[in-house]
């Protein structure tokens, strides 16, 4: 199986089908990620915008700086952020604030018990709960659990240190537990 970087090289060498391969590979992930923040009605447009930006900027992609997956999700995040800014539906100062060193060094721990995970299997309930969590924490949960990105990849995408991502993840799980526990 070819790596994303190999596929990009083929596209840049003139193989237009290679770009279609990348689009096919990432469409559902980008759509699902977008839908989590802008809703299903807007996710299709966001996804199209992301791939248009990929097409326009693929020559600028540098595999030494980030993986293609990290790069495309950063484009998706920026596209979503621009969309939400236009809608003025979110406080964007909460997206990019830096946390103190104490929070950055909180170890990544699993804090949810089995009964809480079983409640998370109810997709509708999970969506309602995730909507109550601040967007910067929700973003980490979606990328980590839904898109199977590592904390390092998430940090690269968000431009945040690894310990900050782990700290956000830890706090997100605490908030998630706080939202779920009363419903048990």
Description:
The longest helix is centred in the first third of the chain and has 23 residues, at 16-38. The N and C termini lie far apart (44 Å). Mean pLDDT is 81; it is low at 89-117. By secondary structure, the chain is mostly helical. The protein has 2 domains: 4-87, RNA polymerase sigma factor, region 2, helix turn helix motif (Rna Polymerase Sigma Factor, Chain: A, Orthogonal Bundle), CATH 1.10.1740; 92-183, Arc Repressor Mutant, subunit A (Orthogonal Bundle). It contains 10 helices and no strands.
Briefly say what this structure is.
The protein is mainly alpha-helical. Helices cover 71% and strands 0% of the residues.
Helix-strand blueprint:
Elements: H1 4-12, H2 16-38, H3 40-57, H4 68-87, H5 101-104, H6 114-120, H7 123-132, H8 135-146, H9 151-158, H10 162-180
Helix pairs in contact: 1-2, 2-3, 2-4, 3-4, 4-9, 8-10, 9-10
Question: What descriptive keywords fit this protein?
Answer:
184 residues; globular; single chain; Arc Repressor Mutant, subunit A; Rna Polymerase Sigma Factor, Chain: A; mainly alpha
């Amino acid at each position: 199986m070819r790596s994303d970087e190999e596929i990009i090289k083929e596209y840049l060498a003139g193989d237009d089908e290679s770009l279609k391969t990348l689009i096919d590979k990432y469409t559902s992930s980008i759509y699902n990620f977008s839908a989590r923040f802008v809703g299903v009605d807007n996710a299709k447009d966001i996804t199209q915008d992301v791939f248009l930006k990929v097409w326009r900027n693929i020559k600028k992609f540098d595999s030494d700086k980030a993986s293609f997956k990290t790069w495309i999700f950063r484009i998706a995040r920026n596209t979503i952020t621009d969309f939400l800014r236009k809608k003025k539906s979110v406080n964007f100062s909460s997206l990019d604030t830096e946390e103190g060193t104490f929070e950055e060094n909180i170890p990544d721990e699993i804090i949810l018990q089995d009964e809480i995970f079983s409640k998370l299997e109810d997709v509708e309930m999970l969506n309602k709960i995730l909507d109550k969590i601040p967007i910067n924490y929700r973003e980490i949960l979606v990328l980590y659990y839904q898109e199977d990105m590592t904390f390092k990849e998430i940090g690269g995408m968000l431009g945040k240190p690894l310990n900050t991502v782990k700290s956000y993840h830890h706090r997100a799980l605490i908030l998630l537990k706080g939202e779920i526990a009363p419903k048990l």
